[in-house]
Specification:
TIM Barrel, alpha/beta, about 45% helix, about 325 residues
């Protein structure tokens, strides 16, 4: 298996200095990661200010081309450069609101984002597009309550994903779906959507998100054996007991026993070793994406994740 570092660990803060992003890439290479996954905002340049490489415009402005950026990552010691790009329906909806687009545009905007992201992946020579198909539940209901979109979202996003998969396949890129605890398809609710899609569309389990939603991450890996892509290894001890998923800020809960949702890799209750063994049993030999979301000390965290991997992933 190949191991990728997720820039979700850094929060991709656009306020961070230019040198930070160069040194970050060098540290990722020194720590021995094979690739790097970016939470991508394909047509949202504001997120890329400060040279945060989270949109095509920021990358091309700083490095001249996507291919140059890929070469830069490899020069930093990240053997395969980009492992994949992750786009989300939440980012799409937020950007639509900033641009004052009508709510009916969400499916067309999804395809537009996918098309641009696929072009970036193709130029970089990367093969993995990861898509989170649902916005946050609270924002979704605020935008679409009582509309045809609310009533038929699963069917319409399934049709959209089929088109995304066709675009990706034409460039030799694999599409995988990832579900968060705060979305319409949290936990095992992803199953009904996956059943509507061709087998070529893979599932990208996010272990911490599954745990928070009350699903068994190991069982989800086993369920989708043979149909997995870009498996995210992360950690938490948070369980959503009071319906935080439906609040406006589900990742910053105001009620319940804990107000910190994520924790440093290795400090939580997610059965990462069991999930790794299930991947081995399934013959999985592709990307494992390692992340400690909202880490306090990013440099220490990237080393700790690799130390855990070397100790427990045999």
């Amino acid at each position: 298996m190949k191991y990728s570092f997720s820039l979700g660990t850094t929060s991709c803060g656009s306020q961070l200095a230019l040198w930070y992003w160069n040194e970050m890439s060098e540290m990722i290479g020194v720590c021995g990661y094979d690739g790097m996954e970016i939470p991508f905002q394909a047509w949202s340049f504001n997120g890329g200010r400060g040279a945060a490489p989270v949109c095509a415009e920021a990358i091309r402005t700083k490095y001249g081309s996507i291919a140059n950026y890929q070469a830069f990552l490899q020069e930093c010691g990240i053997a395969e450069g980009l492992s994949g790009l992750h786009i989300t329906a939440q980012n799409i909806l937020s950007t639509m609101m900033e641009d004052n687009k009508p709510r009916e545009a969400i499916f067309d905007c999804t395809l537009a984002l996918a098309e641009e992201t696929i072009a970036v992946l193709s130029e970089a020579g990367s093969k993995d597009l990861i898509f989170s198909p649902s916005p946050m539940f609270g924002m979704f209901m605020g935008m679409f309550h009582g509309s045809d979109i609310q009533e038929n979202y699963e069917d319409r996003i399934a049709d959209t994903i089929v088109k995304m998969a066709e675009m990706a396949e034409s460039e030799g890129i694999k599409l995988s779906l990832r579900n968060e605890f705060y979305g319409l398809f949290r936990g095992t609710l992803i199953d009904s959507l996956m059943e509507k899609l061709p087998e070529s569309v893979c599932y990208s389990p996010d272990l911490a998100q599954l745990y928070i939603a009350g699903a068994d991450p190991v069982e989800m890996v086993r369920k989708y054996a043979g149909r997995l892509g870009s498996v995210k290894m992360d950690d938490t001890e948070f369980v959503d007991k009071v319906g935080c998923f439906a609040t406006p800020m589900p990742e910053a809960p105001q009620e319940g026993e804990k107000q910190r949702v994520y924790c440093t890799f290795g400090n939580g209750n997610v059965d990462k070793v069991g999930a790794y063994q299930a991947l081995k049993d399934a013959g999985y030999d592709e990307w494992i994406v390692m992340e400690s979301k909202e880490a306090f000390n990013i440099e220490k965290t990237m080393m700790k994740m690799q130390a855990f991997r070397k100790k427990y992933f045999k």
